[in-house]
């Protein structure tokens, strides 16, 4: 049973990690928490349904198209919720993202209907690992997610383009002044954020079906992952996501199947009280 | 090199500059002084296209009134902002590299030579190249901000209150560097609260009040102008200096 | 409020029947089936000249898929002069509406299956459904006697309907001297059932009894297969609804269930309904639609018997309904206003639930 | 007020290292030193914004270094910040009076402190409307306003962090006038400043920090000619 | 000052007029909507205290609302406590929970407190939903008696209206007094600059806990009123989304003005009634509307209204406020 749970928690954790990473990117780019990140997950999942079942694209092409579309969604989202409000108080942007989260759910309902939808997995069947069994889709999810997350991590931390994006995130005024096209940089960050979360949704779709509400609790747990990992830290988002996945699954099996969400959030509060800055802390301190 | 004619600038509906004209020659250091809220920062922002503006801004004979901040930075008009604005979460070296974005875009061109140039000008920065910018002292951050502008291969450098909050010794060192940069052939437009200092290093001075140029001339003459003494040097100066 | 002195019923206007259902929200699909079932019934009755010489008119109010919404929707209806109201299929919503029903004094047919609905002893609330005391006992007996299961695990949603039914089943199993080896619960809306199913697997159970709503039922059938847990599953009605089978696809194969209505129902009237429904809406009929269709006919029957729309009279007429044959089952209201009298044990074969045994409750 | 071997380190950085000095009422004491030498840190330690690692601070014979920030403020320590920290979304009135409310100043009349509010505003050259939003003040005005607010609660010690940064020499005179007011009200002033003009003309005593450690203490004239100070801070260039 | 006085009287008179006309003219259904609106308004006022005044984002308010509702439900149905006592106990109970949580959570600085309240509301919701012996679990608690004083029962929608109206007016007045008091000013100081506030002598840790506690007591009272009104409660009502709704209402109305909560609540609660024919699109309209309003009026309707007024007064007024936001 333990093995079974470990594998399941790894797969769930990596999906939380993908949503969390998307949140962190937006946080770093513009300093606000995106409450509609979970809805990116949902959109990615619906895109998977449309691309594979309605349009009949092969899985590889569907994945690529989904990534592309989600990037586009990110850019549009950037221009609607963030750009017009970039100069006002950050809480107004947060409210705007709450509004967006409601609107996105409704748009999805109008387009795809209210019923949950089933999506075919990329690889069918189950794999047996000793006494544990797992759907191949889980393994694919872990693989694709890990690759994508690594790629984005390298892009941000190790490449020059990544430094430009970071610079813009840290000080837009100065960035504009030295000649960084700020709109492009923030837009690109949103695109990457939506892309990674959306692909997470696409991978998740065959596992848990697609519903318009799937983003809600996943988004909140991913948010917990962001905080536990350390606000603003990309590594933190990944580690935090895995931790949340772990607590979620094991609390369900060994403590209480019904209090498991509450336990996840209890861990969040405990983690905050013990180590408010999270595992990887914030790099930038406030000077008085 | 830079010729501004009848420039207006707005924050929303507020007009902060009411028709400013000014000229920076090919090798000059030009000082711009004036009291708080006179519009000095606004003027620099207007030149960099960071506020709404209208009026003629001729740079090397081209009117750049309608251009974007990126275009202007690309053209070599670089601005070291008031309050430094370094990128706190990047290291010193990363800050400098990002500074070259105006001419190299996002390509991975070699910037080693440019880095060398900055490090030879500010050896302190070389010692700290791996340190995050937020952890630098005020003076070091100011050097970094200037260094970052130099990475953009400036043809004209605009400095906004570089001495603010710096220790006297650092100010001295900094101004030596500014003169050094100027001697490499980069004209400088310098905004300073420390009027005496500004007039000492510059060839030409403009005095800005209430969004208008109220006085201009050679630094040597203006420094002795009684009105200027009264308004910008104050009694304190006389007592101590 | 001023509406108490509502205009006395205009005899020339149609009789209004209020329907609370999920038009928006996560359960909007239920709302579609409900609407179809109701409208089919209304059209049929009106085509035959209506009731007491008056046509029927259904008024829909949205419950948004949650309890608070259901309460709100009922309040809205109670202000719009309806003679009878019909509530949604979700027990918790029915229970939430109960105080409002009592206050408004509108005879209301609800379609949740919880045993608690009758226990409310609300004279105005009628359960147009076979309740869980009957169906859960039937499932337990079937598992023990027909399938010869010895070590049974119970899995259920924590909502009122599922936890109530699970408790009945537990009692029934204990009475059969086969106490369940494990009982695991989850919260509505959960997506990942690995911990629950892994525990069942580890417990060495040889069969699962499960009470769920539809989406969760689909997920549970799927995840059970994914964990390579190959023991019989006997589920609540949800497990053979179209919604769940469409989601679980091949994973729904061979799952047993207890159902109020399936398209292959042996009741002739039910078969007729299935045909008419398919003709009109071009899709297969389904449990939701059938139950609301029955509820509307029950309402019509009560109105007819009462001969007026006077609330007290309609209520009386409703309680006296006996042996009314619906498309799902036969309805006889007992002293606690429980109406349904039987269910079917079914099994999904090639994606379609087929009836394998009838359960008579009363 | 007396500081006794006050220490503070941030990770590897020693921001304050055995800093000791004392202030008597009506004294204006200068605290100078290169950037990053720990001046602001010392102010933070005195006002309680940051906790110190070791050492003691006494105010009027009372040990205050274990007290939380707000208790020290009520006990008579008020300060300004290197970057003005005003209540952005409150009007000017709230900004001014909050400190007074809390320092329990209501009973004492303003005049007994040696100045009135309007005198202070005059000295600062501020003409303001009490109901206006605080954001109508320019940067320089905000800095002056912060000093007014600090003086108004009639503290025993006023800590000023670079009050003149970004002000021109003319405007510095207003700072001088304000400090005069504070002194009239029997307060001791601890002044952190890079403008030597201001420091030298106002201070009775000066402490010089370098790497968090005091390297010189004395009268302005002594400091100006102190070799170590010139080396570390003043430089030999123009100003020597 | 003058303007505020005038506004105060206008609001008072308006309130009196509403109190008389609404019960006379509205249908039972509309009365229920109005009653729910007022209950929500109390919760939004609570958000006003904790966020609008003290600057601490809290997503826990719906949780406290639930605590109040459950206390009333349990006391009246299981222990037979009198409704008035239950009402008071609900306010106090929610306050106590908030106080204890505040002691722990206000050790967190800035945004981190807000994040922790998300955890808090999820935990409270988990408890409501699963602590079956006490909260009835997913079944909820039904048959809660109507509010009564002695033998006088307020069971009709109209009498509930008067009860809720009186309570909301009382809480509005309390909030108004708080806003003007030294305590209220210290909350606002914390909101605007916590370090500066501390240095002015504000005990920020204590005062944040006070604000949180006061706010929670509002929610507790609102929860109690809700329990009496609905007579059935279950866990799903008291969730994170509800809390963020309060925040949205506050921001739409204007967080920095006392009338903000009233306007924001009225707008969003009555919106579905106005757009009834568009029922299927109502949530979409709502979501998009929130986004649009934030773009057009980032300071909320009151803030935006004031700006418009300023424009009419003089063109400069608009510009100053606009321009000051220019560079962050
Ligand atoms: N972001 C802004 N929004 C609105 N008005 C502004 C803004 N920045 C500056 N102003 C106004 O424009 C005018 C000019 O300000 P500016 O910052 O250019 O002055 P300055 O000469 O640089 O002063 P200082 O010496 O204090 O830096 C002032 O009246 C100021 O209030
Ligand atoms: N919160 C903090 N965390 C880590 N290091 C800090 C912190 N605050 C200050 N320091 C470090 O302590 C040293 C002293 O800083 P401080 O701000 O006291 O200098 P200062 O003398 O005020 O300099 P300036 O003249 O530039 O204002 C610096 O090296 C600074 O980086
Ligand atoms: C069968 C299910 C869809 C509904 C269930 N009977 C209930 O009462 O909640
Ligand atoms: Mg300036
Ligand atoms: Mg300092």
From TrEMBL, chain A:
- UniProt KW GTP-binding keyword: no
> Which InterPro entries would you find in this protein's record?
ABC_transp_permease (IPR001851), BCAA_transport_permease (IPR052157)
GO molecular-function term, one example from the UniProt record: transmembrane transporter activity
Q: Could you state one GO cellular component term attached to this entry?
A: plasma membrane
The answer to whether the entry has keyword Lyase is no
Q: Which residues cross the membrane?
A: 6-27, 39-55, 61-80, 92-113, 133-156, 176-196, 202-224, 236-256, 262-280
The UniProt entry lists membrane topology as: Multi-pass membrane protein
Q: Name one GO biological process term.
A: amino acid transport
The record's subcellular location field reads:
Cell membrane
What keywords tag this UniProt record? Answer: Amino-acid transport, Cell membrane, Membrane, Transmembrane, Transmembrane helix, Transport
Superkingdom is Bacteria
Give the family, as the similarity comment puts it. Answer: Belongs to the binding-protein-dependent transport system permease family. LivHM subfamily.
Write the protein's name: ABC transporter permease
Q: Which organism is it from?
A: Anaerosporomusa subterranea
From TrEMBL, chain B:
* InterPro entries for the chain: AAA+_ATPase, ABC_transporter-like_ATP-bd, ABC_transporter-like_CS, BCAA_Transport_ATP-bd_LivF, P-loop_NTPase
> Which Gene Ontology MF annotations are present?
ATP binding; ATP hydrolysis activity; branched-chain amino acid transmembrane transporter activity
Cite the SMART domains for this sequence.
Answer: AAA
For this protein, the record's CDD domains field holds:
ABC_TM1139_LivF_branched (cd03224)
- Name any one Pfam family assigned in the record: ABC_tran
- Keywords from the UniProt entry: Amino-acid transport, ATP-binding, Nucleotide-binding, Transport
The UniProt record lists the ABC transporter domain at: 2-235
Q: Which Gene3D superfamilies does this entry report, sorted A to Z?
A: P-loop containing nucleotide triphosphate hydrolases
- Source organism's superkingdom? Bacteria
GO biological processes: L-amino acid transport
Name the PANTHER family for this protein: HIGH-AFFINITY BRANCHED-CHAIN AMINO ACID TRANSPORT ATP-BINDING PROTEIN LIVF (PTHR43820)
The UniProt family comment states: Belongs to the ABC transporter superfamily.
Name-wise, this protein is ABC transporter ATP-binding protein
Task: Name the species this protein comes from.
Answer: Anaerosporomusa subterranea
From TrEMBL, chain D:
Q: Name one GO cellular component term.
A: plasma membrane
Instruction: List the Pfam families hit by this protein, alphabetically.
Output: ABC_tran, BCA_ABC_TP_C
Q: Molecular function terms in GO for this entry?
A: ATP binding; ATP hydrolysis activity
Q: Which UniProt keywords apply?
A: ATP-binding, Nucleotide-binding, Transport
Q: Which InterPro entries match?
A: AAA+_ATPase (IPR003593), ABC_AA/LPS_Transport (IPR051120), ABC_transporter-like_ATP-bd (IPR003439), ABC_transporter-like_CS (IPR017871), BCA_ABC_TP_C (IPR032823), P-loop_NTPase (IPR027417)
Please give the PANTHER family that the UniProt record associates with this protein: CONSERVED COMPONENT OF ABC TRANSPORTER FOR NATURAL AMINO ACIDS-RELATED
| The protein's name in its UniProt record | ABC transporter ATP-binding protein
Please give the organism.
Anaerosporomusa subterranea
TrEMBL record, chain E:
Record's bilayer topology term: Multi-pass membrane protein
> What is an example of a Pfam family matching this protein?
BPD_transp_2
List, alphabetically, the CDD domains matched.
TM_PBP1_LivM_like
**Is the keyword Protein transport assigned to this protein?**
no
Location of the protein in the cell: Cell membrane
MF GO annotations: branched-chain amino acid transmembrane transporter activity
Q: Which parts of the chain span the membrane according to its record? A: 29-51, 58-77, 83-105, 112-131, 209-233, 245-271, 283-302
Note whether Membrane occurs among the keywords: yes
GO CC entries:
plasma membrane
| UniProt keyword list | Cell membrane, Membrane, Transmembrane, Transmembrane helix
Q: Principal place where this protein is found? A: membrane
Q: What is this protein called?
A: Branched-chain amino acid ABC transporter permease
Species of origin: Anaerosporomusa subterranea
Q: What is the lineage of its organism?
A: Bacteria, Bacillati, Bacillota, Negativicutes, Acetonemataceae
């Amino acid at each position: 049973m333990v093995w079974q749970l470990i594998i399941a928690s790894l797969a769930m954790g990596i999906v939380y990690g993908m949503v969390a990473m998307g949140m962190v990117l937006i946080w770093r780019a513009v300093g606000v928490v995106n409450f509609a990140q979970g809805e990116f997950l949902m959109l990615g999942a619906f895109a998977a349904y449309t691309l594979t079942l309605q349009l009949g694209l092969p899985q590889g092409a569907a994945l690529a198209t989904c990534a592309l579309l989600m990037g586009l969604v990110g850019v549009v989202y950037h221009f609607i919720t963030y750009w017009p409000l970039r100069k006002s108080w950050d809480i107004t942007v947060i409210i705007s993202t709450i509004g967006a989260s409601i609107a996105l759910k409704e748009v999805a309902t109008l387009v795809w209907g209210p019923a949950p939808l089933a999506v075919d997995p990329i690889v069918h069947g189950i794999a047996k690992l000793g006494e544990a069994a797992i759907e191949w889709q889980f393994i694919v999810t872990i693989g694709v997610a890990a690759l994508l997350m690594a790629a984005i991590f390298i892009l941000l931390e190790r490449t020059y383009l990544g430094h430009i994006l970071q610079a813009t995130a840290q000080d837009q005024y100065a960035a504009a002044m030295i000649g960084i096209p700020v709109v492009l940089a923030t837009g690109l960050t949103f695109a990457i954020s939506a892309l990674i979360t959306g692909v997470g949704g696409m991978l998740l779709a065959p596992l848990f079906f697609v519903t318009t509400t799937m983003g809600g609790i996943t988004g909140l747990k991913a948010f917990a992952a962001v905080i536990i990992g350390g606000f603003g830290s990309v590594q933190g988002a990944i580690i935090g996501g895995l931790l949340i996945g772990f607590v979620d699954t094991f609390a369900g099996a060994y403590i209480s199947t019904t209090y498991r969400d509450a336990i996840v959030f209890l861990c969040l509060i405990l983690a905050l009280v013990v180590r408010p800055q999270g595992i990887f802390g914030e790099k930038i301190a406030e000077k008085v | 090199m830079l010729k501004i004619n009848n420039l207006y600038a707005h924050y929303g509906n507020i007009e902060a500059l009411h028709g400013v004209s000014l000229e920076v020659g090919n090798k000059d250091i030009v000082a711009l002084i004036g009291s708080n809220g006179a519009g000095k920062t606004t003027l620099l922002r207007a030149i960099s296209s960071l506020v709404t503006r209208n009026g003629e801004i001729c740079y090397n004979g081209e009117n750049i009134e309608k251009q974007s901040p990126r275009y202007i930075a690309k053209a070599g008009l670089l601005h070291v902002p008031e309050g430094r604005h370094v990128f706190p979460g990047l290291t010193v070296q990363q800050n400098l590299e990002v500074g070259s974005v105006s001419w190299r875009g996002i390509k991975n061109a070699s910037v080693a030579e440019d880095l060398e140039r900055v490090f030879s000008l500010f050896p302190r920065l070389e010692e700290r190249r791996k340190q995050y910018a937020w952890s630098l002292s005020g003076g070091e951050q100011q050097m970094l901000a200037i260094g970052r502008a130099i990475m953009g291969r400036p043809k004209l450098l605009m400095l906004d209150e570089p001495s603010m909050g710096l220790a006297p010794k650092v100010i001295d060192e900094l101004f030596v560097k500014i003169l050094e940069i100027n001697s490499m052939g980069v004209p400088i437009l310098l905004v300073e609260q420390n009027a005496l200092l500004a007039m000492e290093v510059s060839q030409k001075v403009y005095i800005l009040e209430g969004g208008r140029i109220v006085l201009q001339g050679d630094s040597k003459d203006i420094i002795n102008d009684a009105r200027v003494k009264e308004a910008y040097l104050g009694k304190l100066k006389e007592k101590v200096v | 409020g001023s509406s108490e002195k509502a205009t006395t019923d205009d005899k020339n206007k149609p009789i209004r029947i209020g329907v609370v259902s999920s038009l928006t929200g996560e359960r909007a699909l239920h709302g579609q089936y409900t609407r179809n079932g109701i409208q089919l019934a209304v059209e049929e009755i009106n085509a035959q000249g209506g009731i007491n010489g008056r046509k029927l008119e259904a008024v829909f109010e949205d419950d948004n898929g949650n309890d608070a919404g259901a309460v709100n929707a009922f309040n809205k209806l109670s202000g719009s002069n309806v003679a009878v109201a019909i509530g949604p299929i979700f027990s918790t919503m029915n229970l939430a509406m109960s105080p409002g029903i009592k206050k408004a004094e509108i005879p209301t047919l609800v379609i949740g299956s919880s045993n608690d609905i009758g226990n409310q002893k609300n004279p105005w609330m009628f359960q147009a459904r076979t309740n869980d005391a009957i169906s859960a006992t039937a499932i337990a007996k079937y598992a023990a006697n027909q399938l010869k299961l010895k070590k049974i695990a119970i899995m259920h949603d924590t909502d009122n309907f599922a936890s109530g039914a699970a408790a009945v089943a537990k009692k029934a199993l204990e009475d059969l001297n086969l106490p369940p080896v494990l009982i695991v619960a989850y919260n509505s809306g959960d997506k990942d059932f690995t911990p629950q199913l892994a525990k069942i697997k580890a417990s060495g159970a040889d069969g699962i009894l499960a009470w769920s709503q539809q989406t969760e039922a689909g997920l549970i059938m799927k995840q059970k297969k994914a964990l390579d847990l190959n023991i019989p599953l006997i589920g609540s009605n949800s497990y053979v609804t179209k919604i769940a089978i469409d989601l679980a696809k091949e994973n729904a194969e061979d799952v047993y269930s207890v159902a109020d209505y399936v398209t292959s129902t042996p009741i002739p009237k039910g078969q007729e309904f299935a045909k008419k429904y398919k003709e009109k809406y071009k899709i297969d009929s389904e449990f939701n639609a059938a139950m609301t269709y029955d509820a509307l006919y029950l309402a019509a029957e009560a109105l007819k018997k009462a001969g007026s729309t006077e609330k007290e009279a309609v209520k009386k007429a409703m309680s006296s309904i006996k042996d009314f044959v619906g498309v799902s089952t036969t309805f006889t209201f007992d002293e606690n206003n429980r109406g349904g009298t039987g269910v079917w044990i079914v099994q999904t074969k090639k994606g379609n639930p087929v009836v394998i045994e009838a359960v008579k409750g009363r | 007020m007396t500081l006794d071997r006050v220490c503070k380190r941030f990770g590897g950085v020693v921001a304050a290292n055995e800093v000791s000095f004392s202030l008597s009422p009506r004294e204006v004491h200068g605290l100078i030193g290169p950037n990053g030498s720990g001046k602001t840190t010392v102010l933070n330690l005195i006002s309680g914004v940051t906790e110190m690692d070791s050492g003691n601070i006494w105010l009027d014979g009372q040990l205050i270094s274990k007290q939380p920030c707000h208790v020290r403020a009520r006990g008579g320590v008020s300060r300004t910040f290197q970057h003005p920290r005003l209540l952005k979304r409150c009007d000017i009135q709230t900004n001014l009076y909050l400190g007074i409310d809390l320092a329990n100043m209501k009973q004492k009349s303003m005049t007994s402190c040696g100045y009135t509010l309007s005198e202070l505003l005059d000295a600062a050259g501020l003409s303001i409307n009490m109901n206006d939003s605080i954001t109508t003040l320019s940067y320089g005005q905000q800095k002056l306003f912060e000093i007014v607010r600090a003086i108004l609660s009639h503290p025993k010690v006023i800590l000023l962090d670079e009050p003149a940064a970004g002000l021109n020499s003319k405007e510095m005179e207003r700072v001088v006038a304000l400090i005069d007011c504070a002194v009239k009200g029997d307060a001791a002033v601890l002044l952190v400043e890079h403008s030597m003009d201001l420091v030298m003309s106002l201070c009775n005593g000066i402490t010089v920090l370098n790497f968090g450690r005091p390297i010189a203490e004395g009268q302005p004239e002594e400091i100006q000619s102190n070799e170590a100070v010139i080396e570390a801070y003043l430089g030999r260039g123009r100003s020597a | 000052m003058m303007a505020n006085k005038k506004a105060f009287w206008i609001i008072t008179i308006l309130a009196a007029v509403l109190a008389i006309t609404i019960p006379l003219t509205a249908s039972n259904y509309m009365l229920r909507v109005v009653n729910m609106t007022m209950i929500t308004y109390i919760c939004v006022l609570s958000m006003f205290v904790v966020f609008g005044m003290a600057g601490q984002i809290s997503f826990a308010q719906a949780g406290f609302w639930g605590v109040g509702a459950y206390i009333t439900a349990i006391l009246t149905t299981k222990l037979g406590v009198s409704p008035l006592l239950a009402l008071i106990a609900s306010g106090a109970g929610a306050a106590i929970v908030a106080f204890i949580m505040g002691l722990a959570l206000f050790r967190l600085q800035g945004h981190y407190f807000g994040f922790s309240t998300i955890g808090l509301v999820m935990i409270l919701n988990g408890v409501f939903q699963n602590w079956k012996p006490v909260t009835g679990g997913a079944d909820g608690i039904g048959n809660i008696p109507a509010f009564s004083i002695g033998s006088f029962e307020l069971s009709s929608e109209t009498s509930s209206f008067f009860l809720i109206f009186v309570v909301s007016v009382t809480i509005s007045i309390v909030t108004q007094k708080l806003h003007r008091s030294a305590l209220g000013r210290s909350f606002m100081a914390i909101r605007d600059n916590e370090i500066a506030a501390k240095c002015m002598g504000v005990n920020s840790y204590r005062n944040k806990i006070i604000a949180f506690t006061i706010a929670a007591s509002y929610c507790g009272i609102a929860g109690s009123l809700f329990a009496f009104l609905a007579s059935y409660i279950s866990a799903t009502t008291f969730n994170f989304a509800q809390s963020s709704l309060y925040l949205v209402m506050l921001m739409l109305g204007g967080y920095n003005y006392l009338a903000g909560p009233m306007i924001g609540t009225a707008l969003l609660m009555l919106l579905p009634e106005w757009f009834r024919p568009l029922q299927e699109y109502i949530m979409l309209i709502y979501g998009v509307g929130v986004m649009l309003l934030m773009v057009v009026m980032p300071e909320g309707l009151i803030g935006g209204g004031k700006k418009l007024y300023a424009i009419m007064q003089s063109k400069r007024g608009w510009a100053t406020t606009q321009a000051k936001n220019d560079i962050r």
